[in-house]
Specification:
Elements: H1 8-18, H2 25-29, H3 40-62, H4 65-81, H5 94-112, H6 117-131, H7 140-150, H8 153-160
Helix pairs in contact: 1-4, 1-8, 3-4, 3-5, 3-8, 5-6, 6-7
Length: 164
C-alpha cells in the first residue's frame, strides 16, 4: 500500500521532530564524551548547524525547486519558536545564529556534497569541535558514532520522498 503524500508544511513539521534539541552533558556522556554545562550551549548550536546543513542538503536533493525554500524556512520558524525553551539558547540572538549557521553550511558544503560526504562532514565538525575545545581528541571516534544517531540522513530522505 502506497503512503499518502505529505504537504511541504507537514514534511517540515516532521523534519523538525527529527532535529536534536539541547545537547546536555548527560546526553554526551551516554556516548562517553565528556563535557561541562558551560559547553552545552555551544555544543547545541554546533550540532544544530550541522543538522541543518544536512536537512538543507536533503531538501535540495529530494524536493522540487519551488518548495525548497518554503520548506526550509518552515523548519527554521519551528526552531525559532522553541529557541529559548526547547533549545535553551535565549542568550544567543536568532539573527546572529542564522549568520553562524550559514558560515557552518559553507564550511561543510565542500566536503559534504560529494559521495562519502557524510564521513567527511563528520570529520569536519569533529575538527571544529576539537579546535573550539568542546571535545577532546580522544572523543573524536565517539562523536563519529553519535552524529549518525543525531542526524539520521536515511530518515530525512524517506520523509522527503513523501512530499508532494
Amino acid at each position: 500500500m502506497k503512503r499518502e503524500s505529505m504537504t511541504p508544511a507537514e514534511v517540515a513539521d516532521a523534519l523538525y521532530k527529527l532535529i536534536p534539541r539541547r545537547m546536555t552533558v548527560e546526553a554526551l556522556s551516554e556516548y562517553g564524551i565528556g563535557g561541562t554545562e558551560e559547553q552545552e550551549e555551544a555544543m547545541t548550536r554546533e550540532i544544530l548547524s550541522f543538522t541543518l546543513y544536512w536537512v538543507h542538503a536533503a531538501i535540495n536533493a529530494h524536493i522540487p525547486r519551488k518548495y525548497r525554500e518554503v520548506l526550509f524556512q518552515r523548519v527554521l520558524e519551528l526552531i525559532h519558536a522553541d529557541w529559548a525553551t526547547t533549545f535553551q539558547l535565549a542568550s544567543v540572538k536568532w539573527e546572529d545564529y542564522l549568520v553562524e549557521m550559514e558560515e557552518r553550511r559553507a564550511r561543510y558544503s565542500p566536503v559534504g556534497d560529494y559521495e562519502g560526504g557524510e564521513i567527511a562532514a563528520s570529520e569536519e565538525i569533529s575538527d571544529l569541535l576539537e579546535s573550539e575545545g568542546l571535545i577532546q581528541p580522544e572523543d573524536r571516534p565517539k562523536l563519529l558514532v553519535l552524529l549518525p544517531d543525531l542526524v539520521p540522513l536515511d530518515q530525512y530522505q524517506e520523509l522527503l520522498s513523501q512530499c508532494v
